[in-house]
Specification:
mainly alpha; two-stranded antiparallel sheet; Farnesyl Diphosphate Synthase; 16 helices; homodimer
């Protein structure tokens, strides 16, 4: 895809750009059709952490306090309603997906050495890296074990493949750190393994539990895959453009960690030689001042990188919508379409 | 079981005690009937780490250099020969078990902050904790994924349950750290989850792949379970009595890490009040001198703790032998019986 021309965003528009970020409101609307079920999923997750081992109970109390917005269970449940799932299985599948997501976040925060997630302390900040490693293992292996006991043979290989792909994503992330020569292709490989794989698994498992045929399962899988890519490109763009006050996680944190994402990768490939050299210096600087940050954003802007990322996200959003275009109209389909808007809304 | 009376070991006998430790020789004998197969398992493990991702290739080269003695694959293969397995499946099962074991060691070394294993640097010492966390995840999830693709439905739940139990073991280990009130019962709970579960899985999977009936599968499972317990009690005793020159891993390291094992637990419960108080001080001391260590060993000795641990290990070894007593005689059974002797030989 070529860098965008017509839709570039001038720095003075950043403010209104941010104003449009009202994720919580909109997510609540998307979740409306499955609100009661999401509460049941939450209850299942609470039951999951019941244990004779007081350390597990103690940590999980912290963990349950910082549980996320349940975007992936929402996708799974919405898709499942398209067919005729056994409700208990759909709820259970949604809980497993959220637990896998949680385990990944815990190991991820260890890897990133994050102290905050969604504005609250991470497990590795509250305890330490070692507890985080063990807790992640515990959640992974228990979720898998319960999944097997549940006897959902069609779901097991999807979850197994996905957790494997996510661990490859962790590896790629580590390999790409501090590497200014990362290409857009390598960036998307990482996005596919680390983020899109679990979104795709959420919609695929929803479709499988709904009892849909192979072709329709594939549609929903593709929907989740494109949605996940759009979501991550938006997230990475927002790491440059967002304000720490508006979103719960830190922004301007990718660069500080040596993680180079699409806006920078694109600018490094397309900016004029002189600006490219300046950008490389800024990207590896350990101590970016406000002035430096403005210069960096300016180069991203003038090189067309920001417009390109917005166009990429929009194209991926369209790809997601196209994947389920032939699906019959329903309140569930409508909510899924809104989920696409939610994933990229920060760039509108 | 009561603390032993007749068989206690005087400190002056420590030397001859150590002389009897010729593990490598004896393990080679046990492995003789499956030597060629173990080489094939090793080749499978090498193929497992082939990857497009150079970070995985790089780390795995280090890892494969420090691969262990393959005690668990040996058990699995020996048991499998009792029946009529598909050879490829048995080799594959043995590789999966060894990989799960390896992943656990990697996360374990992170948790223990070990710098050495088998006399060579650990992954977390060579790289860092974060790489170790990711690598462990990668090995777990890939092993599981391959297991599912292989279509061995009888093996999958055994491995899933075992990895879950091992993660509980990690939790218990963390919970018990620095806790001088740990009981023998709690100690054995940890041993069961962390060590015996994987030995039991090795022999159970061997029996399942051999196509044995339920009753015989259970026998081999019990054999592995008792063997694992005997092995761990011996290992923990040897952490007090061993010499760093003779075994590859560090000795006298449990106490330094705040890990209190059966010898200490038993002495704390059975030594006279005055010695008990001295022992508590020594156990939590950050800087044990050679004199302190001699005092500590002396209390373990006179309280009967060392004799008790030896008797426990012997009783567990007998339990393992009894579990397969009714199995027909064969070279495989003979090698398994020798594996029991190997597990506890350090205490003879």
């Amino acid at each position: 895809m070529l860098p965008g021309k017509g839709s570039s965003l001038s720095p003075s528009n950043l403010e209104s750009f941010l104003q449009s970020y009202k994720a919580d409101t909109q997510l609540q609307e998307i979740q409306e059709p499955v609100r009661a079920e999401l509460d049941e999923v939450e209850a299942l997750i609470h039951r999951f952490f019941e244990s004779d081992i007081h350390l597990i109970r103690g940590i999980s109390r912290q963990l349950l306090g910082v549980m996320g917005k349940k975007f992936r269970p929402t996708l799974l449940l919405l898709v499942s309603h398209v067919g005729a799932p056994r409700r208990d299985d759909a709820l259970f599948g949604a809980a497993v997906i959220e637990l896998i997501h949680t385990a990944t976040l815990i190991h991820d925060d260890t890897i990133d050495r994050s102290a905050l997630r969604r504005g609250l302390p991470t497990i590795n900040a509250l305890y330490n890296d070692l507890v985080a490693t063990i807790l992640g293992d515990y959640i992974y292996t228990k979720a898998f074990n319960e999944l097997l006991e549940r006897n959902l043979p069609q779901v097991v290989p999807v979850v197994a493949r996905t957790t494997y792909r996510m661990s490859i994503g962790e590896m790629l992330q580590l390999q790409q750190k501090h590497d200014l020569n990362v290409t857009a292709e390598e960036y998307f490989q990482l996005v596919d393994e680390k983020t899109a794989s679990l979104m795709a698994a959420s919609t695929e498992v929803g479709a499988l539990l709904a009892g849909l045929g192979d072709e329709r399962v594939l549609r929903y899988r593709r929907f989740g895959q494109a949605l996940g890519r759009a979501y991550q490109v938006t997230d990475d763009l927002f790491d440059f453009l967002g304000s720490p006050d508006v979103i719960g996680k830190g922004v301007q944190s990718d660069l500080a960690e040596g993680t180079f994402t699409l806006p920078l990768i694109h600018a490094l490939a397309h900016a004029p030689a002189k600006e490219r050299s300046r950008l490389r210096d800024l990207a590896v600087s350990k101590d970016l001042q406000a002035d430096d940050w403005r210069t960096l954003l300016k180069i991203l802007e003038t090189s067309g990188a920001i417009a390109h990322c917005r166009e990429q996200a929009c194209a991926l959003a369209e790809e997601a919508l196209a994947a389920i275009e032939e699906e019959p109209a329903s309140p569930w389909k409508k909510a899924l379409e809104r989920a696409v808007a939610y994933a990229v809304q920060r760039i509108h």
